[in-house]
Amino acid sequence: MALAAVTAVTCLVPLSVVLKAGAVPGFDVPWTVGVILASALAVAVPSAMTAHPLSGVQEQFARGVA
Fold first, then answer.
1. Average of pLDDT values for 16-29?
2. Who has greater pLDDT, 35 or 53?
3. Residue 62 phi/psi, 5° resolution?
4. How far apart are CA 24 and CA 65, in angstroms?
5. N or C, which terminus of the chain has less Cβ within 10 Å?
6. Which pLDDT band holds residue 24 (cuts at 50, 70, 90)?
7. DSSP letter, residue 45
8. Best CA proximity match to 32, nearest among 48, 59, 62, 8
9. How far, in Å, CA of 40 to CA of 50, rounded?
10. CB 25 within 8 A of CB 15
């Protein structure tokens, strides 16, 4: 995360200055929260889907052990 923050500051501050938006552009809370939530879902959903990919199949074909 630190590397991403350094990269973002290094690249986005000069871009913001060139676009005449100021050194630090305005902080848009809904947009920022939306991007963070979308990023978290993009990581969490596939992880949750593949956590136990064959658990249903194993239950279906499991033989009772007495």
1. 73
2. 35
3. -70, 140
4. 65
5. C
6. low
7. H
8. 8
9. 16
10. no
How far apart are alpha carbons 9 and 12 in whole angstroms?
Answer: 5
Scan for tokens 């279906």, then name that residue.
60
| Dist. CA 45–CA 39, nearest whole Å | 10
Q: Give the three-state DSSP class for 40.
A: helix
C-alpha–C-alpha distance, residues 18 and 43, integer Å:
33
Length of the chain: 66
> Which residue bears the tokens 């200055």?
17
What is the Cα 6 distance to its own chain's centre?
Answer: 18
| 3-class SS shares of the chain: helix, strand, coil, % to 5 | 70, 0, 30
Structure tokens at 49: 């889907």
